[in-house]
Input
Amino acid sequence: MATQNNDHRDDVIGRANVEDTPELLAYYDELAEYETGALWTVANKIEPWEPQSASVPVVWRYKQLREHVLRSVELVTPEKAGRRVIYLNNPGRRDVSAAVGWIYAGLQVMNPGETATAHRHSASAIRFIMEGEGAYTVVDGHKMTLGHNDFVLTPNGTWHEHAVEADGTPCIWQDGLDIPLVNALEANFFQVHPDLSEPVAYPVDDMTKTWGNPGLTPGGGDWTKGYSPMFKYEWEPTYEALSKYAEATDGSPFDGVMMDYVNPVTNGPVMQTMGASMQLLRPGEHTKAHRHTGSYLYHVAKGSGHSVINGKRYDWEEKDIFCVPSWAWHEHANGSENEDAVLFCLNDLPVMRSLGLYREEALGDNKGNQPVIGA
Amino acid sequence: MATQNNDHRDDVIGRANVEDTPELLAYYDELAEYETGALWTVANKIEPWEPQSASVPVVWRYKQLREHVLRSVELVTPEKAGRRVIYLNNPGRRDVSAAVGWIYAGLQVMNPGETATAHRHSASAIRFIMEGEGAYTVVDGHKMTLGHNDFVLTPNGTWHEHAVEADGTPCIWQDGLDIPLVNALEANFFQVHPDLSEPVAYPVDDMTKTWGNPGLTPGGGDWTKGYSPMFKYEWEPTYEALSKYAEATDGSPFDGVMMDYVNPVTNGPVMQTMGASMQLLRPGEHTKAHRHTGSYLYHVAKGSGHSVINGKRYDWEEKDIFCVPSWAWHEHANGSENEDAVLFCLNDLPVMRSLGLYREEALGDNKGNQPVIGA
Amino acid sequence: MATQNNDHRDDVIGRANVEDTPELLAYYDELAEYETGALWTVANKIEPWEPQSASVPVVWRYKQLREHVLRSVELVTPEKAGRRVIYLNNPGRRDVSAAVGWIYAGLQVMNPGETATAHRHSASAIRFIMEGEGAYTVVDGHKMTLGHNDFVLTPNGTWHEHAVEADGTPCIWQDGLDIPLVNALEANFFQVHPDLSEPVAYPVDDMTKTWGNPGLTPGGGDWTKGYSPMFKYEWEPTYEALSKYAEATDGSPFDGVMMDYVNPVTNGPVMQTMGASMQLLRPGEHTKAHRHTGSYLYHVAKGSGHSVINGKRYDWEEKDIFCVPSWAWHEHANGSENEDAVLFCLNDLPVMRSLGLYREEALGDNKGNQPVIGA
Amino acid sequence: MATQNNDHRDDVIGRANVEDTPELLAYYDELAEYETGALWTVANKIEPWEPQSASVPVVWRYKQLREHVLRSVELVTPEKAGRRVIYLNNPGRRDVSAAVGWIYAGLQVMNPGETATAHRHSASAIRFIMEGEGAYTVVDGHKMTLGHNDFVLTPNGTWHEHAVEADGTPCIWQDGLDIPLVNALEANFFQVHPDLSEPVAYPVDDMTKTWGNPGLTPGGGDWTKGYSPMFKYEWEPTYEALSKYAEATDGSPFDGVMMDYVNPVTNGPVMQTMGASMQLLRPGEHTKAHRHTGSYLYHVAKGSGHSVINGKRYDWEEKDIFCVPSWAWHEHANGSENEDAVLFCLNDLPVMRSLGLYREEALGDNKGNQPVIGA
Output
């Protein structure tokens, strides 16, 4: 006979609150025979009052990780490993190998002269370049040279391969993918390129030269795919854009001077499952706290400071990565009185918005800042 | 020391194939200290060649379930149970109480004179009416009378309550919700209405009278929400539409004469996370097999027949419910040579499409039909 | 020397008010040599304070016109005339043969057994059927049978031909076209079908059967053209829709119970240059006055009554046609205390909206109704 | 009795070809009494085989016009003239004061320290800066500094005023407006600002700093108006964009390396009635001929060369303006073997596209180039 766990009872009008009885337990057994159950035994569990993220806040410190990333070069060959990547494994998401929510992230390293096998998958990927010279990516025949803090797309379904020129230096970048989400949605396909490599079919960096121009679009240009044709967003124009925008805006109380990377054809997110933004915290700026649905993975592009997440302080410096789980209170502070701090952010906001699930709340108490636990 | 499971090795170029060594196991332990891991130990697992659905095909037979549904009325009170619902519990999805994929479904029963507490949640819901007289739903103040095979929406964020008029009969309907998905996305909120009930604020059935007219929209009508303003789709005009469309089309080789329920403002899906369609199989029709991403839950609105899912035959008759998991081969057959068979279908296609993950494949072998196992 | 007309002077700050002088007149002559002029000589003329329509209100009475329309059958052959049409020639728009603004309209007659030559043009056309049995239209191979008060599209660029079955009766319908607009925009092309006729390629009335269903769209249906795929909107379902909608709405204070004909794929106008609506005035209803940009041509589909346009009363009865010029005050009154009155309306609202030029104003004085001149 | 002009007869099947007879002329008289006419008397005129533009090609040479523009400063005061503008008066469009088609253009001059009265109108305007220092425009409170070849919007309905700083120099720019179109559509409204001037309410150039960034949009930025929020498009980044794009494309056979100015929110035209583009002809480049619907007004931003329009050669140099009427064959040639030539173009393409009237044709004969008359 079933030993029903009725630990989901809730003594509130409109909620389930049914005590187990022998008769009910027998009934539950019968229901199980037909692959069914009684809703009131699980209703309160599957209809929570508000989101309880499985993810926990983590800061991954580059200072600590860098040597381990480099060591992977000695430990495994690209042939055996496919790619040499140390992935960020959120303690609450180990079952799906996610850094936060449904987002996977890792630090990949590649030596000069190495080339990864060309492949494609339904998962979408981004790269954010951390160090090294000579890295490049080829996406559907478009070759892109990669520099410090450049942001690059390898969207859903595109053939792509990564490499470092023979005269380059060891290169490290952050990979970000929606693999956990696409797996959960049972929609992931993976293919290795039949030739293991793909030919470069266009002038180098042509997509950025064609689509990355302010207020101008290529005449007769036609692009209807679900992702941005501007595969690479370089750091210099991005930082310049933030600096110009900073002259024209007070910024967001929660995020400082923030800009979203966009598909220039739609002004919407760069890909359908992942969005990205870059935000500048002015010297000494400390933002107000808010929370929203959606999982966020921050990468410190410039400067240092700290964030307060669900009442706990997390310090960060350049190249560190940290996460903010869904519906967690968070606020950011630039630690310098003289320099900008700039945060790159990868998130699943496009999913929240496409599905009508985005929700946001400002902290009203305490002048908008969280009391810090232990502070 | 870690006992690494390297059971995800794959001896194919471009895939991970790293053997455990003491040195690597030590390395994996170090990585774990920093909440990280080595991608090549999980890469093949998280990047499968194609989707492997956790769900299994099931037919829930109304003949078997009806008495159990009715018995719940005797076993629990609405006050204690919240709602008296027997939910469909797919053997592969018991952890999330889903009928298939990320879709929850149940059979709800309500007696004359009963009213459920008004509430709202981020999850979206549909109802498909199975039997009884006098049921009605109120959605954001719009009251709708419900009849056999009517399809009704209670979208994300709307206040709603269900009831049966005092002079009605016991009513049973299918509920369908995206609760598992919204929970997984960590975006579910739940509220009981402060007054436990909501007032009826508009003429009865006004939304269908306003928005449910062929080729005509209310003058000055303005609707920008993410879901259809036509909250109720009645059976008679739906069946008439199918019959008319059948005169104008050969139909789909895979789905017969199929129409999608739409938001009349966008011609897109009725809600952002769930779609629905109704398909008519002509007398004697047996469709070809195809497979696609997305999870499907069928409800037999009329007639009888069978489906072949991943090579196995499943018979169904009126009011039965059955599921087709993501990427499962499937084909349908009307069992009658004289009567139409009509299938109502609830699915997560809007999620697949919004996120760029829809993919479809026709079966090329065997003239497009699956060999049936054991047949 | 130029005799400058300086009758456009306006003694208001910010307006041009330059007196002719000999020196200026000489200057104007020099400018003319280079195909230029001085803006201040025409500025006030080309920048009016508000629109002054060239069109005047007219009622075309079917009682008067019918016999003349029928007489054209005796007077000219279809071979010589192309089509036998009496067009509505607004006194203010004779230069462009328009009924109002940039809209052309005419009454066409066709005898049983006659067929017009198939042709196409960049101008878009509508037909509204007035009397007779057996008329049909073929649009891009889709044949449509036509009945009383049916509304039919022959959009921009589609091959079309009109005919009456041999066993029919003489048929009269209203044609409406954007010919004057498309000519003014220098974008009109005209072609006679190389075979003079086009084959019927689909089941009769297939487009209405496929696309004219409330809240349902054909599965896999794909339509991206700029006009509605639902080529025919029949009178019965239209009148039924108005009647149902009347139960759910108070209606517009200016237009009664009004519904717009829409492209079901976009919920927008049926064509890019012309819109249409149908409005029901309840027994005894007399609407408030408003005015807006855009030209309107009304056709009395049912009942009788009057409209007040720019302060003058215009009576109308079934099958009469009347126009309201851009920015003219107008209000409508049903003349019956027992019967509905229903007005079909053809307009250029899609042009106004697409170009950002729509503007509307309610009459505030006199409780919202115009004083009637001479009343 | 009417003296019918039957000069529109056309002896082609499907066209009208009715000879006047006394009986018909009497009939025409009767029709005229009811404000109607017989279609066959005008059908061929109003349904031409293809567009016949009323506009003629013209080159307005800056060398000739500049002194006349400057002289207007001596001849009229801003108070009397409103604005000192010499407008381009196409010989075929004098009735509507248009430069080509429905586009008005003029050369405006303003002295240091002068300010024009703030006003707004339903017509949309652009400015293209030709010479001088210190000019600025204020649009809805947003002040923009203006430099050589900058392109600026003053959209439909926005308050705007133009001025030159007291320490500037005399400034000349091209104005372009859709006044003739908006008048023809009977939708033009004009208002002088109640305070004659509008306050500057934002940081200088804030809209360009906010919206003019490649691949980045302001976080939380929300813009739903029908025109671009990027009111100013500066010359330097535009020319840089063309140069970069030139590295990535072969260019169009008809237009060289062409980019369209866009509303960054939609990637569509900057305003709903007028579009603009900038095209670079490489040294020695001579394009192929094509024709399309829509009226084009070119302004030579850099370099010199010639265009062939409907078989006639028109030479141009920097700051010259020339027009290409609708459906006129045209091709362009850079006159230099060493320098780029760059053409700014203002057009009504958004109207053509919104209304479904765009049509294009390449010249097939003579290897794609027109024989030049008299060459």
